[in-house]
Each structure stands twice: as C-alpha cells, then as structure tokens.
Automatic annotation (TrEMBL):
It comes from Nonomuraea monospora. This is Aminotransferase class I/classII large domain-containing protein. Signal peptide: none annotated. InterPro entries: Aminotransferase_I/II_large, PyrdxlP-dep_Trfase, PyrdxlP-dep_Trfase_major, PyrdxlP-dep_Trfase_small. It holds the Pfam family Aminotran_1_2.
C-alpha cells in the first residue's frame, strides 16, 4: 500500500501483495503492449467478459468457460450474487468487507458459525449463504469432504450457496456445480488487476446490463498472460504453505486457531494457506499497536469477526522475515501478558 511508512526492517504481516517476480512483470508488460495495439477503447467488452479471457481462465481453473463470467473481483460481484434475496448469511470468522458491501446495498447481513450452518440451524430459503473455501480468511480453515457433502444437502435450504474461492491457489479442488463459485485473482496478482469470476452463471446473466470487468485491452492482455503461464509464475502450482505454517507456529511457540494440543491431525489438516489467527489476551488494539511499535504489522481479529485475536498473513515474506517477526511477536506478547496479568 502506498503512503504507509514503516520503520526500516518492519515485517508486514497484514497480507500486503509482494512485488511480482521480474519474469512475470515483463511478460505482463509485453502482453499489455500487444493488446493495446489491437483493441479500441470505446468497445464495451461483453457482459460476461471477453471470450478469450473466459477461455484462458476457464482452462486454467478447469471450469467450463461457457458458464464462466469475468467480474472486477469478489466484492464487485456481490450485488449480482444477492439477486432475488435481501439477506446475506456470512460464515464467521470472515472477511467482513463483504458484509460492508452487502449492507451498503441495503441487504441484511448476519453471521453464523460453521457448526450452526452444517447443523441446519441457519437455514433460510430467502437468504444467500456465503462461505469461503479453501483456506478461509482469516484462519485458513477449509471444509472437509464430509462437510462439503453435508453442505450439498443444504442447497435447497437457501436461495443459493456461494463458495468464495479467493484462496483456491492453496488447495485447488473441483467443487460441485450446485454451489455458485466466486473468485478473484487479487491474492495472486494484487488488487490492481481488477479481475474475478463467477461460475456457473445462468444464461440470464448475459442479458443483464454491463457493469464492469476491466476494459477490453486489459482482458485480452490477461488472456495472453495466462496462456503464456503468467499466473503460474505468480503462484507456483499449487502453493504449499503447510510446512511454513507449522514452522512459523513452532517459532511462535504457540498454535494458531485450528492447531494446538487438543486438536487431531485430520482437523489440523483442514487449515492451509498463508495466514493464521493467533489468540491474544487483553486489548486487541493495544496488542496491534505494540506489535507495530516493535516492527511487526498485523491485522486485528475484529476486522474478521474474530475479536481477541490477531491475524498473521505471510504470503511473499521470506523465512528470515518470519523468524524476525516471531521473535518480536513473542517479546511483545510476553510483555503484554506480564502487564495484563
Ligand atoms: C475471503 C476474501 N474474499 C474476497 C477478498 C477480496 O477480493 P476482491 O478484491 O476481488 O474483492 C478478500 C481479500 O482479502 C478475501 O479475503
């Protein structure tokens, strides 16, 4: 994020996108230069996205391109996904900005724990149920096979069930078409790309007024970038952060939620991705401030409906930076515990 000035040596664990590796940046520039020469700025891309981008992204994601629509990202696609409903049920914990967008559009938003959802206690056939899988933000929790089967039986209990695959790069796996999938490139590329997708979209979607997706030349450049392996240059394929997670927890000497002594290995394996939720005692804003003063930037749990925690997100950070961060976090939490008793 421009405009944020950290002390030299600050380790940023807020999930800031790292700069692209040079081969990816050069490939992107070449693709964009070529597409700018061919497309006219006044042409409006088709409502569901440029066919070339739908084909390239569909192939990359292993999703039928005919049923794939290009969007400007997950938050931008929320209004369409709410159509026919006035109530959004978000699984807790979650990325709360989705609730902010929904409330802004006049929808009622409620939060529900995964257990309650799976037990059928949240069911409402006028509501959209929204879960994130795999690697839910903020704690990395994914749904197990039995949970996905159970969720499938709940499809008729809601207006629709949306599965947010923002973190699918960590555990790519096909999902049943009974769920509406929504995704974004922003965790790979950074939010500046302004590209996401919805799958499957009904035929009626194509008749809706155009709302976005980026301009045509941008979409064409991205199609060429994907075909030339650009997303793989950014992601590795798939990204395996499991070992780093264990290593980081070891350095911290304390488990994130979903780990810890009372938790079995099959439950623990549901957690993946490059972020974890760490319980803290006392005032969460105080802990966030004290960590920043000691050279580690983290996100407050309350931004994800998880008060009493901080979220550590390490995509793009080196092992050396994680070691430095762990030492500083341990110092701050030890001092904080001494002070708050
Ligand atoms: C679960 C989840 N969904 C969506 C987003 C944002 O996606 P977009 O930028 O495409 O709106 C984030 C970003 O942190 C996220 O964590």
């Amino acid at each position: 994020m421009r405009g944020v000035t950290d002390q030299p040596g600050t380790v940023d664990l807020t999930g800031r996108t790292p700069p692209w590796p040079r081969p990816a940046a050069e490939l992107w520039r070449a693709c964009l230069t070529r597409s700018l020469a061919g497309e006219e700025p006044w042409e409006v891309p088709p409502r569901a996205g440029h066919p070339e981008l739908r084909a390239a992204l569909g192939e990359h994601l292993d999703l039928d391109p005919d049923a794939l629509a290009i969007t400007s990202g997950v938050r931008a696609s929320l209004p369409y996904l709410m159509s026919g409903s006035t109530r959004l049920i978000l699984e807790r914990p979650t990325f709360l900005e989705l609730g902010v967008v929904a409330r802004g559009a006049g929808h009622r938003v409620t939060l529900a724990e995964l257990d309650a959802v799976l037990a059928g206690r949240a069911a409402d056939d006028t509501a959209v149920l929204w879960l994130t899988h795999p690697a839910r933000n903020p704690d990395g929790r994914s749904l197990g096979a039995a949970e996905l089967d159970r969720l499938l039986t709940l499809v008729p209990a809601y207006r629709r069930i949306v599965v947010n695959r923002t973190y699918q790069w960590y555990r790519p796996a096909a999902l049943p078409a009974a769920f509406i999938q929504v995704g974004t490139l922003h965790k790979l590329t950074g939010g500046g790309m302004r590209v996401g997708w919805i799958w499957p979209v009904p035929a009626s979607y194509h008749g809706l007024p155009a709302d976005g997706g980026p301009p045509g030349p941008w979409q064409l450049a991205l199609a060429a970038f994907i075909r030339a392996g650009g997303l793989r240059l950014l992601s590795g394929n798939p990204i395996d952060e499991q070992a780093r997670r264990r290593h980081f927890e070891g350095l911290l000497g304390r488990p994130g939620t979903g780990s810890g002594s009372g938790i079995g290995s099959s439950e623990r394996d549901l957690y993946c991705g490059a972020q974890l939720l760490l319980p803290v005692t006392g005032s969460e804003p105080d802990v966030v401030r004290a960590l920043a003063a000691n050279g580690v930037r983290v996100s407050p749990g309350r931004a994800f409906a998880a008060p009493g925690h901080v979220r550590l997100s390490w995509a793009g950070r080196t092992d050396g930076q994680l070691a430095v961060a762990a030492t500083r976090i341990n110092e701050v939490l030890a001092a904080h515990t001494r002070r708050t008793g």
